[in-house]
Queue: 4 jobs
Job 1
Amino acid sequence: MKHQNFILIISGPSGSGKTTICKKLLELDKNLFYSVSITTRKKRDNEVNGIDYIFINKEEFLEMIRKDELLEWAEIYGKFYGTPKKPIFENLNNGKDIIMDIDVQGKRKIERNFRGRVISVFLIPPSKEALIERLRKRGDLSEEELFQRISLIDIEMNFKWEYDYWVLNDNLERAVMDVKKIVDVERLRGKFILI
């Protein structure tokens, strides 16, 4: 017997450590598949196409919407982001649990499509000031982008009430292990299916 595969969604304000925690979890757990989002934003210097994001232009993105190839999508900070369907279904069918770092809009859409199979984690930064400092240190945001993200912190934090779990990310290693424990517990308490 094995558990019914699930989708683990990790959300939080910009700069809360979503992508970093997802990557660390993949190193610890080979039964997780990381859903790489598609975006129309420009690639940052330290990012790898196909690993961090799949970078495409707006016309390609709109074509994917027309062809119904995305599970969810949204326009954020003037750029499009979305989750491709095909790898999600392939990996669920191959016995993997899925991990995604998406915003609350995307979470709501995924929950509608996968009722009872979504586990959600909201990352809590140690403080608003610490989060702003993280965003500034990244050095990859224009002043306008930085202002946009800072202005949304309080709004984004209010969404934490919609999530199954909260994880404080004041220490990266501890936060990673807290999320790993959530994965382990959910596998134990999940609905079991006969193999």
Job 2
Amino acid sequence: MADPKDTINIENVVASTGIEQELDLQSVAMDLEGADYDPEQFPGLVYRTQDPKSAALIFRSGKIVCTGAQSTDAVHESLEIVFGKLRDLGIPLPDDPEITVQNIVSSADLGVDLNLNAIAIGLGLENIEYEPEQFPGLVYRLDEPSVVALLFGSGKLVITGGKTPQDARDAVDVIAARLSELGLIELPAS
């Protein structure tokens, strides 16, 4: 079995920031090329960046949520593009708006099939949710790091709720160690 940490891939980074003022989204939408604003469908204006690829959700309150980026660096680059576009429209912004990573969603692969029934019993019902009739994965809530992992019978994992890329690495280590302790997977000799 290869090191599952080598299979970790960041799928989505969600971050938030604010520009400390209210915005007239209708006016911004008319002036900002490529912006989507349909208040009947969604209360925010959607502005997509292509390089790096992401979507900024800009709200009337001045709050901005960036989603779809595949790294924390890409979030910062995307938001710098958005800040630049807003400044170009004559909207005064703070010099260095604080950007907070809210959620990093990562995937990984343990490289072996998993017996989710045995895992559900072994990990104990207080930390897991497993209803195969409702959802094909097992939901495992970890305390340290504070993330939620979805485990699938294929050995694939989805880790959500991380604040740093390291959280996914730590979660994979914890999950692999727990499953090894339960005799449900074999870890490679280190």
Job 3
Amino acid sequence: MFSVKNLSPKQIAFFTALVLAIPESILVYIAEKSWVWAVGSFLIIFTGSYFLIFFMLERFIYRKIKLIYKFINKTKATRREETFYKYVLPQKGIDEVREDVEAWAEANEQELELLRKNEQFRKEFLQNLSHEFKTPVFAIQGYVDTLLGGALGNPEVNRKFLEKTAKNVDRLTHLLNDLDEISRLERGELVLNRENFIIQDLVRDVFESFAVKADVMGIQCLIKKGCEAPLSVYADKEKIRQVLNNLVGNSIKYGKINGVITSSMYNTDGRHILIEITDDGIGIGEKHLPRLFERFYRTEEGRSIDVSGSGLGLAICKHIIEAHGQTIHVRSTAGLGTTVGFTLDTRRD
């Protein structure tokens, strides 16, 4: 369909030459009273104007537009592309070119915004990584300096300091192991050994492994009423155990004295099982929720409480669940508690 907004260079030259030639030929006819002179002047003016305008458009405008397209594409044109630039591109109207350039500018702005976010993430990651290493390293340095400064000869002091040093060495080892694991997960090197198992049995095993820590805080760990009926899932049992260990461990760490940790399981659509771990602890502010699964990200409240974790637990959980082709989510309200849920495939025969 013809559109004034999308005239090609030839069309622009044609209509402009026509506008110039018609009035001139009418004036010639009025002056000379001869159709021959009028038609002759029309043909001369139209032809001359057409080629002059087309040449100017092609030479000074569309050549620049072609350069813009080459710049947008960021490549050296092949022969095929040169043919495109020469024969196809000039058919585009100025408005179409403007739209293409605006779309290119918007895409570049989005790319720049992503780069800015990645740069900010990189800075925060390095800062958090530095913090996680500093704490145990400085503690070890302090204990060793104290021992070398004369406390080595005191049996009561040197054993106590060596035990604390060993604890911080274990923390460093745990941190390095977590970093190595998350690096492998991000490279897609996780191998899943899937099998059918009852998710309630695995949750009970995890609750039992945390029984001592839970008892110290008076926390009850239980499966929600109505969710006791066995549900079979198809997943890597040990990897899911790792996920549950992290979630239950966090619930105890950030839970309240004499609180409750509840696990619930639901068959959502016949193909997936939803597993949720809920506590009534300190909760998490809404602004922090989108970043909880980032490496080393912690809220200020969490950082003040957690002095032993690597800060990579939730990030590892996310990678494990996503490796299963599933999703993990968190719901929380500050002061009321937190629920972390994830899905798994149902049993496969």
Job 4
Amino acid sequence: MTERRVALVTGAGRGIGRGIALALGERGWAIVVNYRANQDAAESVVRAVREAGGEAAAVQADIALADERHRLVEQVFAQNRRLDLLVNNAGMAPRRRVDLLQTDEASYDEVMATNLKGPFFLTQAVARRMIALLEAGVYAQKPLIVNIGSISAYTSSTNRAEYCLSKAGLAMMTRLFADALAPHGILVYEVRPGIVATDMTGAVAEKYTRLIQDGLTPIRRWGQPEDVGRAVVALAEGWFPFSTGEVINVDGGFHLRRL
């Protein structure tokens, strides 16, 4: 890819990740479209980003696995010589929604590895590279990191406890890296979506539609992946230079917790 600013978006083959990749592509970014399994979907995003005016390449890697995280980081920096933006978007819900008292360790470990352990160690590896490149004077604009969280960080869903725990952990991860990386000029943010129309919410679409219509959120519509994409673009374009560790809610006002 060229000397455009480069973004790695994990889990970019569908849903929110796709929306983020396209929004950045429209701004002329070069996107590394990371995906775990669905190559056809990832290649579709690559084509869409190019049509939108950006550049893109797909890279397969399961961020839950240490060897694949390492390969992803090596490939990104070898091909682009830099990374201006890491978007930790890849995530998964439990394969089965079960009551908290029935949650098993296999499901817990799988969700936590993908949603928290993977992003933590990927961010650690990328941040080290970013710091080294900053010291070498590579960047004209400081790089940054954006984590895609969830209202599940503070909203109890007892039939997917491992997901809620992973997103609560990601919220603290944002604060930790924001604190550690601020002296280097690397800003870290969390974008926190609410109810967004994706594959993950498809199974409960009827329930959520009814709740939204009944006033669960002040803005009475489903969120869309492009809503999250716009928030990431605002951060990526440097519109919040005196903020770090900040949470940007993209949730239709759900966080207001009205009476």
